[in-house]
Input
Amino acid sequence: MAALDEFLRDIWLECCGHMSSFTIDDVEYVKPYTEEESMLGFGVERRDMDISLGELLEGGLEFTHEYDFGTTTELSLRVADLGYGDTGDEGLQDHGYGAIRVLARNEPPEIKCETCGAPATSVCTEHLYRQESEAWLCEDCTAAHECDDHLFLPVVNSPRVGVCGYTG
Output
């Protein structure tokens, strides 16, 4: 499970080293910061993420992953199927995740500039946080926007776009 957590962080979530967890059948799998950290939860059973995917996952299983318990991003995951034996992936590089493979990804959502309607390239985190218009901006409108440069984050294909310090 820890390898799957790292995989999701690397391709879609990681910004500042926040905590994360999986929930499978009312059991929460977490990666504690230290050996001494309590595995006690509030009304849920907690276990360490250091467990084999094969022990927990089966075809058709639906479960969730949460990243960052302050500005939480929750992913809904589904195991399409489990494969065993020769995958024919000899040419693929192993990035330390073993047999985890991406079979499909989402198309990036079309986000329009709230000022002119062109494709957005940045998000003003101040306007987004205050839920004001002109949060999503194209390159030209970003240059003319009133907020300081350090408040802008790039528009990227991730559920973390505009959240915390995520840049893709």
Q: What stands out?
A: The first strand starts at residue 20 and ends at 24. Residues 91-95 have pLDDT under 50 and may be disordered. The chain has four helices and eight strands.
